[in-house]
Design brief:
Mean pLDDT: 83
Radius of gyration: 17 Å
Strand order of the largest sheet: 1-2-4-7-6-5
Oligomer: single chain
Distance between the termini: 38 Å
Strand content: 25-35%
Number of helices: 4
Shape: globular
Order of helices and strands: HHHHEEEEEEE
Largest sheet: 6 strands, antiparallel, barrel
Low-confidence stretches: none
Length: 172
């Protein structure tokens, strides 16, 4: 049991380091591509500069979440800080048909937080993909990017991150 706890702790540390390297990997690939000769091969990808991504872990992001991410980006409704920390290669790899899901809320956005395809179950908000760029915790207001409706959620403590299958409590 102690070994399992240590292994889990090591995995969490590796994931935290990987989340920290996402921004610099993206900038590095942009720099390399800006200075490369297009005739000499494929452009560099951010994933080429990942050193801490767990090798055995295959990240699967649901296709509707990927489609929503790219639709919001195309419509200029995606905060710029999200694009900098998003796993772009993984999002592209799991992209679906690009069709909008009818009757589905696409995203809630607030100060350093973005929830993609959020839905309320009881007193919990669940979403397949969330981005958090703030260390702030506690009650936070989020606005529906399409309707402008305001929601309040409880943000747990943590570092800058993106989360699959995220859950947040609704704030009173």
């Amino acid at each position: 049991m102690i070994l399992q706890a240590l292994e889990h702790g090591a995995k969490l540390k590796l994931e935290a380091l990987h989340h920290q390297e996402l921004g610099i990997a993206t900038l590095t690939s942009c720099f390399i591509n800006a200075n490369r000769d297009p005739k000499k091969g494929e452009p560099a990808k951010a994933s080429d500069f990942f050193y801490f991504q767990p090798k055995d872990q295959k990240i699967k992001i649901p296709a509707p979440a990927c489609d929503t991410f790219f639709a919001l980006t195309k419509e200029n409704k995606m905060p710029g800080w999200v694009v900098g920390m998003a796993p772009m290669d993984t999002l592209r790899a799991h992209k679906g048909n690009g069709k909008r899901l009818p009757g589905r809320v696409r995203a809630w956005s607030g100060d350093g937080v973005l929830l993609i395809l959020p839905h309320i179950e009881g007193n919990t908000v669940r979403c397949p993909l969330a981005f958090v760029s703030t260390k702030r915790q506690g009650s936070l207001s989020l606005r529906d990017v399409d309707s402008g409706t305001l929601f309040r959620v409880q943000l747990p403590p943590g570092e800058r991150r993106w989360v699959l299958g995220a859950e947040f409590k609704i704030a009173e």
